[in-house]
Structure formats: C-alpha cells, structure tokens
C-alpha cells in the first residue's frame, strides 16, 4: 500500500477506562494527531465489520470536537447504547449547540463533557457526565454532583490518585497507573516469585507436562485460575475439569504456554483488586502476534512475538530489573534483544505496539488499516481474557 493510500485511514490510540475494581468499562478513541475531523475518523473505524461485537460489552467514547457539525445522519450507523459522545465543555456555552446536544440526549445518546462547563451549560446540553484531567487538580464538587455520571478522571498515574478521585465523586478512571504499581513486590512472598520464574523457565524450554504440574500444585492461586479458565465458557466443555493433567490435555501445549504466561498477571493484588496489568499484557501479546502475521512471519516467529509482548511487562509485575528476569529464563536471543533493548525485528515491533506513529508504521511496511485490525483483535482478546480468568 502506498504512503498516500495509508494516510487516508485514521490512526487511533485506544485508551482503556476502568472502574474502581480495575475492570474495563469503556474505551476512549484518541485521534489527537489526526488532521481531519476526529469524529468522522472514528466513524471510519466503527465501520469495521463486527466492531461493536469485538469490543463488547465496553462503551466507546468518541471525540466530537465540533458539535456544531454533528448531524443525525452521522449517528445512524452507531449503536446508541454503546456510544458516548465526548464534547468540549467550552462548546456548550453556545445555546444552539446546547439545543442540538439536548436533542441527541433525548434520542438516547449519552453526552460526556470534556472539561467543566460554565453555569448550567452541562445540564442544558443534556450531558450526564464529565471527563476531566484530574492528574493534579480536582474540579469543583458542584460540577460533579450536577450530573448523575459516571464521571471519568483521566491522567491517573497511581492507585493512590484513583482513590482520591473516587472520594471526590469519580467512578471511571484512565491513565498509565497500571504501569506504576505502588506495592513493593520485593517485600512480598519471595518464594512465590521464585516459583513464578521457575515456571516461566519451564515454559520457555517447553518442559514436560509433569514438571509443569508439580509447580502448579505448589501455587494455589495459579492453579485456581488455570482450572477456572478451562471450565469457563471460553472452552464450552461438556464435563468439568478437575485436575491439572486434564487441564493440560484440554488446552494443548501451545495454548497452555500462552494462557499460563497471561495467568501470571491474574494474581490478585494486596488490596484484592484485579491486576490492571493483565489486559495490558494480553493486548501487547495479541498485537505482536497479529502484526507479525501481517508481515508474513512464520508460526514460530509469531509465537516469539507473542512471548515478547506478554513478557514485556514482567519487570513491572515482579518489581525486578528485566536483566534479572531474562537471566533466569531460557529465551530465544531475538526475544531477549527485544525485552532488554527493544532491538532487532521483535524489538522494532514491540516499539510499534508501545508507541505508534505514521512514520514508524510506514517504515515497517504496516498500513494504518492493518494496524487498526490488529489493535481491534487485540482488545477483543484482552476483553475475553479479563472475563474468563
């Protein structure tokens, strides 16, 4: 695909929105670098076949930077119960825009103001909730209580800040807080961490099933999640699985490796909440595999791409330097280079998954549309993983 043809398809960043239990409830469509109309760009993405099914049951928060241009015909292809229209608060000072948005709200579309509007503008616009960058400051209390919510606090860099915003009246949260856990894993169960590394080592060298079973029996939390997984609706088995041996046979070697790698992130935190790293690891792993496939890489290379993606957050999970983690595992050299230095073909792909832009995608020979399809599939899989583990 030529460069001009690539540029016609919008490049989006999906930002997960979580509730107070670290469960995903929505996705924001970020098109800040898109030169055209961001809402029209979002519509292009939402024309992807089965897109709403892929992202179910999450809501989609779409940017509407120019609400004066919004028409009913734009909304006809959308599932109203799954769409939240994100409108700049400043735009709602215009009475004509207030009437227009209020009409869409009456028709069943949810309006979320980006920022805090003056006076009664939010209510007059039919807005039910606010989206506010609360990374450093909180909006006035009256701004939050005037609408039923749920209000979304963005810029969340820590769980402590989420707790503060929750007290202020927010119930949805977005940011990179998952990458900055506040608990110190090094002060926790050292034996458990060593067991995890041992299990990762066995998976990396494709160890015998009996060796895996021995370690699984020593880790009640991991064993519980594995049995819960194979008995979930994802596998739709006719009879329940009660033993690790059965679970291993049902999943098969390749799937067992993949699920166990993800199950490492499923461990509950000290506060009992779900680990927000789990869906992020699933997104990275799936995107790495999908992009590798789109580039024509063979099955083994796709598997290595998956491993690089899922292992790329182990340093955050285990609170250990990646050098120590890699040293404890028998990984392919290409995976090691990717994890340590973001070097080599896998490293280049991992950088694209972490931070993408048009120039780097074009250099890699990946079209915007191909990237979106891999991204969509990755989020679909991460949603399923979170619901089944």
Low-confidence stretches: 1-7
Written as H for each helix and E for each strand, in order along the chain, the element string is HEEHHEHEHEHEHEHEHHHHHHHHHHHHH
Oligomer: single chain
Could you tell me the number of beta strands? 8
Question: What is Rg?
Answer: 22 Å
Structural class: alpha/beta
Tell me the fraction of residues in β-strands, as a range: 5-15%
Measured as a percent range, the helix fraction is: 40-55%
Instruction: Kindly give the count of domains.
Output: 2
Distance between the amino and carboxyl termini = 39 Å
Identify the strand order in the major beta sheet.
1-2-3-4-5-6-7-8
Characterize the overall form: globular
If you average the pLDDT, what whole number results? 86
- Main β-sheet: number of strands, strand sense, barrel status? 8 strands, mixed
Number of helices: 21
Describe the structure concisely for a colleague.
By secondary structure, this protein is of the alpha/beta class. It is 51% helix and 10% strand.
Attribute tags:
eight-stranded mixed β-sheet; 8 strands; globular; HDOD domain-containing protein; HDOD
